Amino acid sequence: MAAKTKFLFFSIAGIALALQIFQIDQTLPATNPDEEFHVVANPPDEIVGMLKHACYDCHSNNTRYPWYASVQPVGWWLQSHVNTGRSELNFSEFGRWSGEDQADVLRHCAKLVKKGAMPPKDYLRMHDDAILSEEKKSALITWLLERADVLENPHAKAVSFTQQEMPRDTCDDPDGNPRCCFIGMPDKLTTTLKIAPDGEPGQRLVIKGYVYKKDGKTPCRGVLLYAYHTDATGAYTRKGDETGIRRRHGRLHAWARTDAQGRYAIESIKPASYPKSNISAHIHAVVWEPGKEPYYIPEFEFAGDPFLAPEAVASAKKNPGRSGIISLGKDAATGILTGRRDIVLK
Ligand code: HEC
Questions:
Q1: Which among 36, 46, 194, 306 has most CB atoms closer than 10 A?
Q2: What is the mean pLDDT of residues 285-302?
Q3: What is the CB < 6 Å shell around ligand 1?
Q4: Could you state, in order of their start, the residue ranges of all structural domains in the chain?
């Protein structure tokens, strides 16, 4: 080698070596599991599998860095792709967006997958497992579009059913379809069922808890809750203009919808047991998981109630997620009764 070429060779090798000092940070960002796409949108395993292989390297906090990410400047180039990808769309933060935003994103994904724009072509050259067959592509697109509709309006189908196909009168039946309980539900719901208005006679009561799926540990988002109870005299008092099932349930009722963590709360007064009865005081409650049928869960009852059956108390201890008996405490400062109940769905 001529002296000049030699100099050039060692200079380039030296620079290349020096570049390796500036490694990219391959630590994965901290992730809140409740916000992950696969927790919030509850996709079937094959859909999660496709997204994990084809999209997650750039659009989630779960990037799988290849070995050449440690070779600079390739690593810098990869990291800038990952950073741009994450800033455009991060599936690990899916739960932070509103239902409408989530729906928009999924529809946009469906469009880009259909066009073949995502995953990017240069990425596919290095990742065989990210290539989606035509069949897989169409399954993914169909699922994305259908789930977008559900996320935007979790109960659209259910509500139109109750209004169009549920004759009012059948809802005046004590054993009527639990869907009747959702007629008249407001469009905007929070996680709190505010049942008794401020100023209602009785002891104020707050119950909080989580709704879990059947496995008893996965929080269930978007579950509708309906509850009603007697007033402090033990009667289902009415305003007078009630229709349908409310002619039985009376004025003390409310609805709520669980959030991404499955949270709900009841704010009300403690109901009294029916006058001259030996039935314990209770709150009736119905749950409606998206895509399923609503049903009554065991009533909320209060430990220490003289009319509680001892068997019920014993079985509540064994299986708290499926029992409604709760122990009330009292907030020393406000005097409000407080309780906790986690609900495990069927
Ligand atoms: C190699 C990294 C990489 C992979 C893999 C990848 N993307 Fe992207 N994606 C990007 C980058 C970079 C951008 C932003 C620049 C752009 O639009 O090209 C982006 C943008 C997007 C956007 C927003 C585009 C816009 O117009 O706002 C969506 C939606 C998207 N990707 C969906 C997907 C889906 C769905 C997959 C899997 C099927 C996927 N991406 C796979 C890197 C990637």
A1: 36
A2: 91
A3: 54-55, 57-59, 81, 84-85, 88-89, 108-109, 112-113, 118-120, 123
A4: 22-152, 157-344
Indicate the burial class of 302 (C-beta count within 10 angstroms; 0-12, 13-18, 19 or more): buried
DSSP bridge partners of 259:
none
- Domain 157-344 sits in CATH at 2.60.130.10
- 10-19, 163-172, 262-271, range with the lowest pLDDT: 163-172
Laid out side by side, the sheet with 282-288 consists of: 253-257, 224-229, 282-288, 295-302, 325-326
What is this structure's pTM? 0.53
Q: What is the pLDDT of residues 302-323, one digit of tens each?
A: 999 999 988 888 888 887 777 8
Q: What share of the chain is helix, strand, coil (3-state, %, to 5)?
A: 40, 15, 40
| Antiparallel, parallel or unpaired: β 337-340 and 282-288 | unpaired
325-336 pLDDT, tens digit per residue, is 999 999 999 999
> What is the DSSP secondary-structure string of 151-214?
HH-TTHHHHHHHHHHS-GGGGGSTT--GGGGGTT--S---SEEE-SPTT-SS-EEEEEEEEE-T
Residue 221 and residue 289 in contact, taking contact as beta carbons nearer than 8 Å = no
pLDDT score recorded for residue 84: 86
Q: Give residue 1's pLDDT band: very low, low, confident or very high (50, 70, 90).
A: low
Q: Please name the residue whose Cα sits nearest to atom 11 of ligand 1.
A: 85
User: What distances in angstroms separate CA 255 from CA 56, 120, 340, one per listed residue?
Assistant: 37, 45, 18
Hey, whose CA ends up nearest to atom 42 of ligand 1?
85
